[in-house]
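hey team, just a heads up i'm posting the complex here instead of the shared drive bc the drive is being weird again. everything in one block, sequence lines first with there labels, then the predicted structure for the whole assembly after. its two chains so it's a bit long, scroll down
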Amino acid sequence: MMPLYLNGAFEYPTAIALATLIGFGFGFVLERAGFGRATILSAQFYGANMRVLKVMFTAIATAAVGLGLLGGVGLVDLSMLSIPETFLWPQLVGGLLFGVGFVVSGYCPGTSIVAATSGNVDALYTLGGIVIGSVAFGFAYPALESFYLSGDMGVVTFDQLLGVSWVWLAAGVAIMAFGAFLGAEKVESWLAGRSKTEAPDHDMPLRNRAFVGLGVAALLGIATLGLPQKTEEITVDVDLISNMDLAESLILAHNDLYLIDLRNPSECASKRIPGAMCLPGDDVEGRFIETLPPTRTLVLYSNEVMTELPNPAKGYKGPVAVLDGTFNSFQSDVLDVPKLPTDPTVENLEEYRLKNALHQQFTGQKTAPVDLKPKATSRAVKKGGGC
Amino acid sequence: MENERPFWNPYLAGVALGLVLLVSYVVMGFGLGASSAPTRVAVAAMHLVAADATEGNPYFSQYVKGGQNPLEDWMVFEVLGVLLGGVIGAYSAGRMKRGTVEMGPNTTRRRRFVFAVLGGGLLGFAARLARGCTSGQALTGGAVLSLGSWVFMLAVFVGAYALAPVMRREWR
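-- predicted structure starts here --
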């Protein structure tokens, strides 16, 4: 199963050798793409030559389609990929500033490195600027910290956000890219006609072959949806409690449990499940947990679903359960404003009502009239296995 | 230099770049990046000169805390590879030209250098604020369908197009 490194196929020294090799490919392709030249890169923003758009979007579509296909046939576990977290506001503002820096310097960080290697002096100045800028950020950080951490949504991908499978979205990205390319080529030839110069040569047969190849890969990816689903049982040797059951227990029987947040202390301090306790940062052995009287059920959660009893909980004498979810999944299931299902059925309307009631209980915000009838006997913790 | 090889067709280059990213994800589980390597080099240098101040800074400390070496990171080695790839790429295409300056036809070298540093400063600052650059956010995060990365990418284009008319004299 891939990714290989994260599945322990090789060790760190091999990993850094491969990192250098992958970087080599990256640098080589950037050079061949013409990205070592500020005059080519900046031409993107005057419409004269939209190489940046063409290369970037083809690359994004290729990788998205490729990952969807490999994930679909079960070769790559997409859930293991390291995906950049979303911090909406700093990424929006950072993007705008970055765009300004791009057109002012004519480079971005990766391309300035490639440009410098082929002897462009201006790229060395830009690299110097990049170092100065990132050091300046570090010094300004205390003042910027709250903004830097704002809009924290964790890992959010469009497939979870929209509930559409990866392969469909990858195909959508490819179609969007094709549309953008046709538009870009129109703009290029229009501007070339106006200034009586030649538009960039597209080598149509080659371009069309690239489009067709990408389209076929996208269709194959979609076809993998028809493959029989492998149901892999995760072997869990602890009791699991679902997000909804935890939410219910917190409302109806919060005195029956201790809820502990195992994420790092700063994350926990900024936002946690209501009623949760943070673990002191230096307390990896869980001395704090050992001091708790074993009269309640200990419930733990983190950024990942735990498949075995986490270390800090080993000293606890009472019953232990872990959340069958993560902080983020709990947040989206319970703390975020629930969305009305688009295809209402009896089951999902029922679920919506329940979520609404929970949301209201936790946040005090009314979203829609609901009536939740608490169950007469509240289960504090749902047992995963037999008792 | 005579006989400079042409650049690749942009769509072919895009497929090649996408395959490099795909290989990175399949082999390592991580995507590509660039901007954090210069930051790590800078932090390593600062740590040599002023260890206490570097460890005391809440942002830089993440790279040096617990005695870790800021240069011992996959991204640093990856960017080392980018450097080598750039050298071999440019050399094999006959594009190695020491001391060239990339600039528009209507500007001076001096102005070009000033803007190169200024723009670079913005790039470095913004990449840290956004937790990545065109490689780590737009390309990598874009391919794995990350919301924040797409927001970043669109904002980059908006910012660049918005300022492009002001910079016209430098490039066209």
